[in-house]
Amino acid sequence: MKIPCIKAILCFILFSIQFSLVAQESALQLKWGKISPTEKNLKVIEGEDEAPAVVLGEEATISFNLADEVPTIVIYKHYRIKILNQEGLEYANIQIPYHSASGHEEITGVKAQTISEDGTVSKVTKKDIFYNETNKYWSEVKFAMPNVGVGSIIEYKYKLEISGLGSIPTWFFQSNIPKLFSTLEIDMPRMLKYRPFIRYATDLKEDTYNYFGNMLLPKYERRKVGIDGYETVRQGTTSVKTEMNRYSYSMENIPSFKGTSSVYRPRDYYSKIYFNLIATEFRQGVVQPTMNTWDKYVEVRTKDPTFGKQYTSKSNYKKILKAAEGKINPKQSFDEKLHAICSFVSSNVKWDEYYSTYSEKSLNKVFENGTGSSCEINLMAVALMREYGIKSYPVFVSTKKHGKVEWDSPFSGQFNHVIALVENGESEQFLDLTKGMLPDQLVTIDALNDKGLIIKDDNKFLVKDIEVPVSKSIQIIDANINEEGTLDGNCKLVSSHYENMYQRYIFDEKTSDVDYAARFFDEDYSLSAINNLSAEKDNDINKDMKSDFNFEIEEFITADDDIIYIPLTINDNLDFLDGAFDEINRTYPLEIPYPFEEKFVMKLKVPDGYVVEELPQNLKVSMPAGFAKFMFRVSESNGNIQISHSFMMKKHKYEPTEYVTLRSVYQQATEKLSEMIILKKKE
Predict the structure, then answer these.
(1) Which residue has the higher pLDDT, 233 or 382?
(2) Which helix (H) or strand (E) covers residue 486, if one does?
(3) Which of 386, 467, 567, 624 is the most exposed place for a label (fewest CB within 10 A)?
(4) Helix, strand, or coil here: 445?
């Protein structure tokens, strides 16, 4: 046998010691209460002169407690922020939300203090920290930092424990204020297999160290029961030396997020990282996959008594079916049955204002109580539609405030709402009864956010865009220009789909006729009179909302000697897009509430003694496939000028690759509508 030389052995030992020390180095930089001269003297962030505050540093460490009966993810977080101006004082009011339902998450060990410019330290006491339940699912830790002024540094830290190992919460490197650095550190045992997902973090620094550490694990003992039987009994815990991986992720000099224009939830596009558990290996060589594919997710949820069984097992809705007898005629047409079912559900069960993907009680019980979550109400509709021969399927979605779905990372927490898909031959439509009856083919605007996961039969599924019809708003003006330069005439309004619902609402809520009518005129114009306001609101919400009134506005025209300049519109109906197209290129999608078409038609009588000197050129411009288009036409005949223009956006979200073309359509529209009709006095 060959004996290794002493020198080789010493080198190996020295390397092992160095590796052990390096492996356990931490990337964390914040030390509680230790403020550097640079932090004290910082007044403004280069390139972000208007920033109200700056994150001097933020850190999180994540470890795992596998010894308890329910394993937990343990996270320690530490934040340090400096107030740069008066607007930044709002950052001294701390609110930390956590998912408190069934004890899923718990926050403890809150510690906070303010360090004034003169070095004075003011601590937050326990009596100043409040734990409030915001709803039956969520709570928050809330406290105000004391003695805060411009130049103050605030810091706080706490411990967050999460039951289960399904997914590690997203760590956001970016926010609406700049950060000097942001660090996430994870000590992960070999037996847990998480897949990281990194988004918009091009400058992310990553480091990995391997080391061996002790970890407490459950201890089990196999016992004999009876003659031939055995049982496995938990017997406390045991300390096991296991391979550990320390992952460190950090970013420095992180700018504030600038893409907030026409983005519903900016956090969807922050630089961030999150992790999804894909497998465990608690026994050497035995890898247990988790619910890490959509196929597996759909299979589990289909069999779930709080979801799939609710609409497939008649015992969960037999009382509802009995109550519907006589109110829904099975011999009616498809549309009549669909409307009757939706009306029955909406009139009997009101939304409790909770979005959910679970039914906490049987649908029978929900029906008896008369209130239910979004999931319970829409599953009730799905069950009834199936009983009456209408093909219907539940659809998992995420609302606008909840955020976008990461489709390459299957985990249930991404969804918070359930709607329904109805099929009629080759046609289909999405339905949502959460907020009561809506016009056909509409869902609540909150749900118009991303694609949906459609749960078909036999554990099959589809991922599709949530499509809704284009909502139209038409304004028709028939008016005259008088000698004083005022415009008077009649205005007719017609609106459909979402616009229909909105116009019904604002008409009912109006404080005066002028208050209602003023919405349809540019704020630069002064309304001097509104008369004979009326509205046609049929009880059938699928019918368009129509309103009508007479008006008079002052200083409509601009006169210059013998020349009159007439604007092409009286309504800046695209004002909600102001700022959306300021950027030449866009990194993030552009989002609008819903697809729309704004159409304007105006007939003007040429004032006596004047003739048309110049009319703008007609224009028609559109994106490929007609996803957005603008049309303008103007003509004159027998002393009457006819103006018409329309602007349509056919989608509620446009990708960055579509932005340049969409911006061009918008710019050409606004440039055209800034032109004037020119009249000249007859000689």
Answers:
(1) 382
(2) none
(3) 624
(4) helix
Tell me which residue of 607, 605, 392 sits closest to 484, measured CA to CA: 607
Helix, strand or coil, per DSSP, at residue 110: strand
Q: What is the dihedral of CA 537, 577, 176, 202, to 10 degrees?
A: 120
State the Rg of the chain over Cα: 32
Between these two residues, 136 and 462, which has the higher pLDDT value?
A: 462
DSSP state of 48: B
Q: How far apart are the C-alpha atoms of 352 and 45, rounded to whole Å?
A: 45
The mean pLDDT of 264-282, rounded to a whole number, is 89
Residues facing 57 on adjacent strands: 80
Taking each helix axis from N to C terminus, what angle separates 334-348 and 374-387, rounded to the nearest 10 degrees? 140
623: tokens are 């994106």
Phi first, then psi, for residue 345 (nearest 5°) are: -65, -45
Cα 496 to the center of its chain, rounded Å: 25
| H-state helical runs in 196-249 | none
HSE of 159 in the Cβ direction (CA atoms, 13 Å)? 8
User: 């955020």: which residue's tokens?
Assistant: 403
Residue 533, Cα to own-chain centre: how many angstroms? 38
Per the listing, tokens 């999804």 go with 276
| Three-point CA angle 460, 199, 162, nearest 5° | 75
Sheet of 563-567: strands edge to edge? 558-560, 563-567, 676-681, 610-614
Q: Nearest CA to 500 among 537, 460, 532?
A: 537
pLDDT in tens, 142-171: 999 999 999 999 999 999 999 998 878 999
Average pLDDT score, the chain: 89
- Token readout for 48 is 């972000």
Sheet holding 461-465, edge to edge: 427-431, 417-424, 391-397, 451-455, 461-465
Distance of CA 304 to the CA centre of its chain: 26
Answer yes or no: is pLDDT of 33 > 70.
yes
Whole-prediction pTM value?
0.86
Average pLDDT over residues 443-451: 91
Give the burial string for 235-253 (b: 16+ CB within 10 Å, else e). eeeeeeeeebbbbbbbbee
The number of C-alpha atoms within 13 Å of 647 and in the hemisphere containing its C-beta is 20
* Region class of 433: left (phi > 0), else alpha (psi between -120 and 50), else beta: alpha
pLDDT at residue 7 in the model? 39
Quick one: which of 258, 264, 270, 268 has its CA closest to 583? 258
> How deeply is 230 buried, as exposed, middle or buried, from its count of CB atoms within 10 A (0-12, 13-18, 19+)?
exposed
> CA angle, corner 67, sides to 65 and 68, nearest 5?
90
CA distances from 653 to 164, 428, 529 (A): 35, 21, 39
Best CA proximity match to 651, nearest among 659, 643, 642: 659
34-54 pLDDT, tens digit per residue, is: 999 999 999 999 999 999 999
| Closest listed residue to residue 237, CA positions, set 220, 212, 255 | 220
- Can you tell me the distance from the alpha carbon of 522 to that of 527, in angstroms, rounded to the nearest whole number? 10
Neighbours of 117 (CB within 10 A): 12
Between CA 631 and CA 668 the distance in angstroms is 10
Q: How many CA atoms lie within 13 A of 120 on its CB side?
A: 10
Question: Which residue type does 527 have?
Answer: L
